[in-house]
Write a structure and sequence with these properties.
Helix content is about 25%, strand content about 25%. By secondary structure, the protein is of the alpha/beta class. It has 2 domains: about 190 residues, Medium-chain alcohol dehydrogenases, catalytic domain (Quinone Oxidoreductase, Chain A, domain 1); about 130 residues, Rossmann fold (3-Layer(aba) Sandwich). Strands 3, 4, 5, 8, 9, 16 and 17 form a 7-stranded mixed beta sheet that branches.
Length: about 350
């Protein structure tokens, strides 16, 4: 049995997102049915809907920063009950048996790869998964998160399900904390959460940006200062001084300018995927200081829950701009121009009145 869902979908790379009806499964014994309240708008949504990354399956209903209220649960669900406020992030399934899955690192599933909340293989109905630009979703309880923030903050919690965990996971993995000097490259949807979380972990935080006019915002978010990355003198003043740099920029750029700022044994971790490869970094820049360039992908379910609890305890949410779902194309156009501080979030109540 299935239940009809309503949302917005792209039918082709050049087609604007528009109203679309489709089928969700009835809750299976381990499933949680969720009425979606809010869904963040990630740059990945735009890339996928527009077919800018290979492999988009149409029709495409994006959205993997989901906050909602539990409507019903399957007979074997023990973690959630109707009425609970919950979240769903970038994953809705994985093999559950490979070393990465058994280690709680489902995002690195080695057998099938994790099943994306949208544009992944639907493990029950066949076809592909549809995301959070819709009125409800049905997800295995193992991929549902508890949310403890106040209800007034729920819209601003939604981006934590992607932007929050994407920055929290590497900051925790590389043990960022008090006494460390940490850089965040880029002050957008990811970067602004990186600043907030790194500061809450106790680090001294600096933002790297090409835009000097973001200095006040960087400081408001928790940074000590902003370093203009195209100012060679400003960059040189910080040479060999950073313990860790989190690079959130998703455009191809010179990595050497940042690795030169790392201390011996420092690491720069990349979380943005550029359309074209970065220029090859200088090997000598790494060898002579035992520096590292690494990568990180979201986080496992247990770590995502840890991140949500951490953010609740420290009063952290994303800086957002709320939109109606009918305005998604305008939001996409503004995202391309980096005209948002710092994440759009869709109020799914607007779906009821959308044409």
């Amino acid at each position: 049995m299935t239940i009809t869902a309503h949302g917005y979908a792209a039918q082709a790379p050049a087609a604007p997102l528009a109203p679309f009806s489709f089928e969700r499964r009835d809750p299976q014994p381990n499933d949680v049915a969720i009425d979606i309240l809010f869904c963040g708008v990630c740059h990945s949504d735009l890339h996928t809907a527009r077919g800018e990354w290979d492999g988009t399956l149409y029709p495409c209903v994006p959205g993997h920063e989901i906050v909602g209220r539990v409507a019903a649960v399957g007979n074997d669900v023990s973690k959630f009950t109707a009425g609970d406020i919950v979240g769903v992030g970038c994953m809705v399934d994985s093999c559950g048996q490979c070393p990465s899955c058994t280690d709680g690192e489902e995002q690195y599933c080695e057998t099938t790869g994790f099943v994306g909340t949208y544009n992944g293989p639907d493990p029950v109905l066949g076809g592909h998964t549809f995301g959070g630009y819709s009125d409800h979703i049905v997800v295995d309880q193992g991929f549902v998160l508890k949310i403890g923030h106040d209800e007034k903050d729920l819209a601003a919690v939604a981006p934590l399900l992607c932007a929050g965990i994407t920055t929290y996971s590497p900051l925790k993995h590389w043990k960022v904390g008090p006494g460390q000097k940490v850089g965040i490259v880029g002050l957008g949807g990811l970067g602004h959460m990186g600043v907030k979380i790194a500061a809450a972990l106790g680090a001294e935080v600096y933002v790297f940006s090409t835009s000097p006019n973001k200095r006040d915002d960087a400081r408001r978010l928790g940074a000590t200062d902003l370093i203009v990355s195209k100012d060679a003198d400003a960059m040189a003043a910080h040479a060999n001084s950073f313990d860790f740099i989190l690079n959130t920029v998703a455009a191809s750029h010179d990595l050497d300018a940042f690795t030169a700022l790392l201390k011996r044994d420092g690491t720069m971790t990349l979380v943005g995927v550029p359309e074209h490869a970065h220029p090859s970094p200088s090997v000598a820049n790494l060898i002579f200081k035992r520096r590292a360039i690494a990568g990180s992908l979201i986080g496992g379910i247990a770590e995502t829950q840890e991140m949500l609890d951490f953010c609740q305890a420290h009063g952290l949410t994303a800086d957002i701009e709320m939109i109606d779902i009918a305005d998604i194309e305008t939001a996409y156009a503004r995202m391309v121009k980096s005209d948002v501080k710092y994440r759009f979030v869709i109020d799914l109540a607007s779906l009821k009145t959308a044409a």
